[in-house]
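Shipment paperwork, digital attachment
Item: protein structure file
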Amino acid sequence: MADKFLNMALSSGVVTPLKISDVATIVAAADIGTGNTLQVVFTVTYANGGAATLTSQARGAADAVFIPSTVAQKAAFIRGLWEQIINGVATPWNLPVLPSPSESWDMSTSPAASVVPAAGARSYVGQNNTPSGSASFAGKQSTALLGTGTTNIQAVSPFLSIA
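Attachment content:
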């Protein structure tokens, strides 16, 4: 089977492919620096023993960069990356790049927990005039991965490098 790759836009603006075939583990490695110099590192290990390292930008001052630095943010990033790996397995062999050769991953993930209907409720919720306003609909939507800046939480900034 041909290898699969996930296009990721880096902070330099360059779209770089990350190999997502034969991934054995994804872990949050030790952080680099503290405060405004903090960088997070994720290690992707492959079945053949090889590895790739994703390194975030340094946080910077005045909410310049948002990195997945909390335990929950790191877990969501890893979950989002696994979802992309599963999507890669589900695509035909002749489509080796996700989401496509001309696009990069939008850094989103599905909800951490599925929405379960209340006891006795039907599992299908009928359409209404404002389906996006319903909690069950909103709870099923993909969300942007979040990162922490110096004081605020916003969508994750592009990573610095893939090595």
